[in-house]
Design brief:
The protein is built from 18 helices and six strands. By secondary structure, the chain is α/β, with parallel strands linked by helices. The chain has three domains: about 160 residues, P-loop containing nucleotide triphosphate hydrolases (Rossmann fold, 3-Layer(aba) Sandwich); about 110 residues, no CATH class; about 90 residues, no CATH class. Strands 3-2-4-5-1-6 form a six-stranded mixed β-sheet. β4, α11 and β5 form a beta-alpha-beta unit. α6 packs antiparallel against α7, α14 crosses α16 and α14 runs parallel beside α17.
Amino acid sequence: MAFRDAAHIFQRLRNGTVPDRGLDAFAVGIEKHRKELHRKLDEVRGGEGDVKFLRGGYGCGKTFMANLLLQDAKERGFATSFVVVSDNDLHFYKFDELYRKVVSGLSTPSCPHDALGDILDRWIGGIEENLIGLGTSEDDPEFEQKVLAKLDEELIGHTGGRVPPDMGRVVRKVFELKQAGKPQEATALVSWLSGSSNVAAGLKSQAGIKGDIESTDSMAYLRGILEIVKRAEYKGLVIVIDEAETILRMRGDVRQKSMIAIRQIVDASSTYPGLLWVFTGTPTFFDDRHGVKGVEALHSRIKYELFNGTASLRQPQLGLTPFDSERLLKVALKLRSLHPDLAPEDAERRLPVAIISQLVEQVTEGFNGDVGVVPRQFLRRFVNILDVLADDPEQDASALLGFQPASLTAEEEAVLAGRKLDEPPPDDDFGGSSVSM
């Protein structure tokens, strides 16, 4: 592994977060789950549209699995987006908020952040190359008009005309502004297309649009974004919605509308060829009457079933198994060989399996014996021990044992307190209806 990637992994683990890359270097015990997600990628690449749900308790690796999927998807030529459900700035049933999060979070192999502008350039560049390949000179006075006509043809034709007219106007204007040497104005319109509400009225007027992208139109805009992604020669789009259980902590009406919005996405997924939605959530999110189970139309579509105690990996919910001590030890051994400033043979000699096993036991005891929730805290502690060994060649690893939980997440605090974090408030039933999609 490259030094830069190894350093990135350890920096993220020090902070208690999932790395953006290099995840396969210490992925353990999820080979079958990863194979199933690869199967879904193959289906989507073949023109299907679908939704998959990653189901598992706190600490079992849902976010890790979702990030590994995004890494694998990009290696296979997909564009991706990662969205975390938040009760502060994302009310899931407001599709304009969801759209803004998805599009502003677009990522590709060549552009890891804010990739929409790069995707548009790639699409437009491809159109120009095709025209030139067909014999049209760039010096032809009609060249720009031919590009504009092709933009309309591809955006409208390949979506069956199911994109808002304003979207075509903005795409055309972005091209015209770039041709006129006005990249800042073009970038501003790209941000409008990403869902921003901070674009000057004068510029919007130039593009022939008014206002901002509304909730009622946002999923039609997403259809257009998906087509642009594919016309830019990406295989499709993978959208991860992480921590869906956060919805359970929201007010009853918001919670119910959000569940109905998920049901609408599930129902419409097949009409978005090349798009895979992936939601992560806890068993309580799926099985509680305040969650998925409370919306029968959704629950019946995606319910989790066991067959003589065995779950099919191909059903809508992909169940992830909790960590155990053996799996945690295997992850530690993988990481031990990757530290950027500690030679593998030196790390193996100074931090043997017996000491790592003691650390697993200590961290597990610190969380009341719940090994399923300890990985984040264990990995932070383990990385810190490796860091100390790298800094001091004379340091004895056994002297570094001992564990006290620190920088706890809300989930870890809940485990220590013996309660469920995602348990919704009692007596908080509230009906809801569909929102426009």
